[in-house]
Amino acid sequence: MIYMDEQFQKLNAKEQYDLKKAEKDKGKMGGNSNKKFAQMLVGIVLVLLVGAGGFFLISNRKPSTPATPDLSKQIPYEGATHVAEGTKVNYKSNPPSSGNHWPVPLKDGIYNKEKPDEAVVHSLEHGRVWVSYKPSIPDSVKEELKNLLKRELLVIVTPRTANEYDIALSAWTRSDAFNLENKTFNANTAKRIKDFISRYRNKGPEKVPGNMGASEYNNY
Question: What are the two backbone dihedrals, phi and then psi, of residue 93, each rounded to the nearest 5 degrees?
Fold first, then answer.
């Protein structure tokens, strides 16, 4: 300590007292600073741990299964072989929900034009849900459908002339198809579509996030 050296001994009593007091105060300040730094460090660690835990819970949270009856049906598996783009594939189900398909999947989104079945089937393999509708349904219903699904992820919406029913819902080896009540879009229709998406989105054999490598097939 400073008051133990030779220079300190030469100071008078008051000077020695003042020097001791200054050194003591300095020690307190240093201790408080270290304490505050430790508290801040602990706080940062806790924030990081809580954030990491929250991310883990969110990323591993399983979607809730709808309480309503599942009106869809299982469709027999038809294979999953890649064929050259442009190759026409004859599927046994309408719309198809599995089978041979083109190497590049259709990009997620809402389309106003029909898209090749062979491209959409590849998207279904990647866990997408395909909502297709007859082009002849009222324009008001088309708008309701687009508004309902515009924020949904891993969903594709297209018109499809070959549909047997007004609206068809397709996932990998799963399908639901129905006609509209009085050609109108009501709450039951919206719930049926949303429930199908909730049950079967991201249930394909290949879980592929994002749209990397996908195509909009604007030339078809």
Answer: -105, 160
Q: In what order do the strands lie in the sheet with 167-171?
A: 73-74, 174-178, 167-171, 129-133, 155-159, 109-110
User: What is the DSSP annotation of the chain?
Assistant: -GGGSHHHHTS-HHHHHHHHHHHHHHHHHHHHHHHHHHHHHHHHHHHHHHHHHHHHHHHTPPPPPPSS----EE-------B--TT-----SSSS--SS-B-SSPBPSEE-SS---HHHHHHHHHTT-EEEEE-TTS-HHHHHHHHHHHTT-SSEEEEE-TT-SSSEEEEETTEEEEEPPGGG---HHHHHHHHHHHHHHTT-SSS---S-TT-B--TT-
DSSP class of residue 216? -
- Maximal CA-CA distance, the chain: 108
Is the separation of the CB atoms in 44 and 141 below 8 Å?
no
d(CA 7, CA 53): 58
Rounded distance between C-alpha atoms, residue 177 and residue 31, angstroms: 73
In eight-state DSSP terms, residue 212 is T
The pLDDT tens digits of the residues spanning 11-27 come to: 667 666 666 666 666 55
Quote the pTM value.
0.72
What is the spatial distance between Cα 110 and Cα 152, in angstroms, rounded to a whole number?
Answer: 10
Give the model confidence (pLDDT) of 42-64 as tens digits.
Answer: 556 555 555 555 444 433 445 56
